[in-house]
Each structure stands twice: as structure tokens, then as C-alpha cells.
Automatic annotation (TrEMBL):
Molecular function, one GO term: ATP binding
Gene Ontology cellular component list: cytosol
The organism of origin for this protein: Levilactobacillus suantsaii
Entry protein name: diphosphomevalonate decarboxylase
Entries under SUPFAM superfamilies matching the protein: GHMP Kinase, C-terminal domain, Ribosomal protein S5 domain 2-like
UniProt KW keywords: ATP-binding, Lipid biosynthesis, Lipid metabolism, Lyase, Nucleotide-binding
Enzyme class: lyase
Amino acid sequence: MTTAVTARAHTNIALVKYWGKADQHLILPETSSLSLTLDQFYTDTTVAFDPALSADEVTVNQQRLSPAASQKVRHLLDLVRAQSRQDTFARVTSTNHVPMAAGLASSASAFAALAGAASQAAGLTLSRRDLSRLARRGSGSATRSIYGGFVEWHAGHNDATSYAEPLLEQVTWPVAIVALVLDPHQKRVSSRQGMQASVATSPYYPAWKQVVAHDLAAIKPAILDHDFTQVGEILESNAMRMHALTLSADPAFSYFNGATLTAMQTVRDLRAAGIACYYTLDAGPNLKVFCQSQDIAAITARFTHDFGHDRVIVAHPGPGLSWL
């Protein structure tokens, strides 16, 4: 079994956040979440199971990973091997078109692409729901990158019931995300570490779970009704309440830097000037600005002036997992 299979998956930005695991091993979240898959950020991954190999070989962005660095990849390959009832090692070659570990969900596209390529290379024919469940075992947010458009991840209570499904996969609504790459470097506190600290030490974590339930109930009809203002207000407040958990942890920490705070104020200034836009960000300093297509030019002009052309990327709703 040496046939190579290549899959492409796009990253997503959570509009109602997932922040905290109920089960670290199965990667079951404390709450459900909702995201938008983006067209500009993606991962291409090729997998081939080769009987000649004596161990898994993992290369990311032309760099061969050590066994320690590739542990999560090998764990997902073990799950595929178990499902396909084989023990052949694999050669994995992956290219990330995403700034890795900088709050742009590179792990989401990476593990969704790995799930798609590895399962098919092993001879499995999985439903999208089962691909979502498999991708989740590599990275929680990867469960949503199996699908395009607006996607909800159901928290569930075990491996079988925690999966994502599309809310609105074919997005004709003229919305966009202006991504600001304010710091492309690896963050000091990983998402995993940040979640664990917030769940364990923030006195506000129980309230966060109530916030998510309320925001999910409100944002889904707003998306289906194309209510831009309602969606924008929910995603911005949800992001700030998630980050309040990091500030209220013990010890406190933050993913913001000075440029993050400046960009947040710029979004508020643009809104005050009549340009409708709202910001969100995950575990990293890089802001994502939710806007309408008609306002892209004005928004990008302002941020290009403030931060430079190379740091501003326009993304639109993107597709789900595909095979190349």
C-alpha cells in the first residue's frame, strides 16, 4: 500500500469560541462552537503508507520533524491504522499556507488535511462526520475544517457525539475577513496550555459556558437571516469574553500585543466613521476583521497604512476538505 493521496483543508476562524477541553485525550470541548472557513489559508498534505518504512516520516514545510515534534501526527496515523486494521508506517509531507501557531488556526487545516489524506491512503471511505471526528483527535478546531462556510461543532459527550456539521456551507452572503498578521511567530502560550490554565484557575469559567450557549443560540439565526450587525456584535463580544478568561487566570496571561490593541481601536474608529466591521481573534495576537465586501477597500487601505501591505490579507468564505 504505497499509493500517495493528497488532501487540502482550509483553516477556520471561530466566531463563537471553543476554549477548554472536557476530555484531554479525546479532545472533547467544554462547549460547542461556531466558525467560518476561510479561502486564503490552507494546508496541503500527502500521505503514503509504505511497507519499506521502519517508522513514520513527517515533513512539514520541507522540514523533517523529530519523533517528539511529530507525536500528534503519529497519534492520528495510529487511529487510522487501527481503523484500517494495518500496521504499515506512513510518509507524510505537508505544506502549510498559514502562519503556524500564531492564532490563525494552522492546526485546524493541518489535521483536517491529514485526516482526509491518511484515511483515504489507508483505504478507508469515511463520511464527512467521521472525518470530522477523526480530525478532532488531532486538533479540536480541525473538526470544523472538514466543511466550508459557517460550521458548528457539537461538543457532545463522547467520541461518537462530538463532531462538526455545516450550518451554511454555500455562502452567498457578501461577507469577508480582513486578516491582520501582526506577529507571524509562534506564540509563547500554546492554545492547549492557555485552555488548561483558564479552565483550572479563572473564577469566571462557569459563566463562560453560559455565554457560549447564549451566543450560539443568537448567532445561528442571525447568520441564516444575513443580519450582519447582529453577527458582528456577537462575535466581537464573544472573543473579548474568551480573552477575559486568560486575563483572569492565575497567573494571568494575554495573547494581545501593542499592535493588537491598536488594531482593535482602529476597528472601533472605522465603525464610528460609518464603516461596519467587527473584530475577533483566537489564541494569538492577530486580528481578524469581519466586514462586508463593499467595505473591503476602505478597511484594507486603513490597515495597510497602519501596518504595511504585507500584513493585510483579505479572505472570503472558503470550501471544505478536498482531494487533489
